Amino acid sequence: MLGPPGAGKGTQAERFARARGVPRISTGDILRQAVQQGTPLGRAAKSVMEAGRLVDDATMIGIIRERLTQPDAAAGFVLDGFPRTVTQAQALDDTLDGHGPLVVLSIEVPETTLVERLTLRRICAKCGWIAPRGVTVCERDGGPLVQRRDDNADIVLERLRVHVREVEPLVEFYRVRSTFRVVDGDQTPDSVAADIAAAVASVEGGRR
Question: How far apart are CA 80 and CA 60, in angstroms?
Fold first, then answer.
C-alpha cells in the first residue's frame, strides 16, 4: 500500500491483512520497535525519523528481505511503508522474482486532510497502535495515548514535502502496471476498506 503520511495505510493494511490471514509488514513499526529497544538500527534511525526524513534504502531493503524469509509470509503479506523509493521498488521486484502478483494500491488524500489527521493523531506509548478519534486509551494493552514527535505541524509539512519529492516517483514507477490501482482515501474507513477489497479482487480476477 502506497500513500502519504496520514493516508490510513497502517489501518487499512492491518484490516486487509487480518481479513486475508496474512501478516501486515510495517517498516515503521519495525523501526520504532528498534528505537524503543535501543538496537544499533534503532539508534541510527532515531534522529532521521524524528526529523521527518526517510531512512536510507540499504537499511530498509535489508529489513524487508529478512522479514519476507519468515514462514508466516510464505502465503502472502501486506507491505505498509515499503517500498518508499524506486530503488527499494526495484529491490522488491528482485526479491519477489518468481512470486506474485504484487498488487500496488495508492491511497490518495488531499493535503489539508492529511495535515488535520496527523496533527490530531494519537498513538499508544507502549505499542504504537494508532487510536481512532474519541478513544482515550490503547485498546490493545491499555497504554496511554501520546502524539508522535513527528506529528507536530512543522514536521508534518516536512514529511509531506519529502513524500512529494521522494515518494511520488514511486507511484509513477508502478502506474504503468496492470496490478496498480488508485483508492480514494478521503472516505470513511469502511468505504476505503471496501474499495481496497474491490481493487485487489479486480487484479486477482483479471489474472485468472
Answer: 12
Residue 127 lies in a domain: yes
Range of the domain at 22: 9-184
In whole numbers, what is the pLDDT of the chain averaged over residues? 87
Q: Considering its fold, how many domains does the chain have in total?
A: 1
Q: State the amino acid at position 121 in one-letter form.
A: R
Annotation says 181 is catalytic: no
**Is 72 contained in some domain?**
yes
Is 204 a member of any domain? Answer: no
* Whole-structure pTM value: 0.75
Catalytic one among 9, 24, 67, 181?
A: 9
Q: Rounded CA gap, 166 and 28, in Å? A: 17
Integer Cα distance of 177 and 191 in angstroms: 24
Average confidence (pLDDT) over 68-93? 91
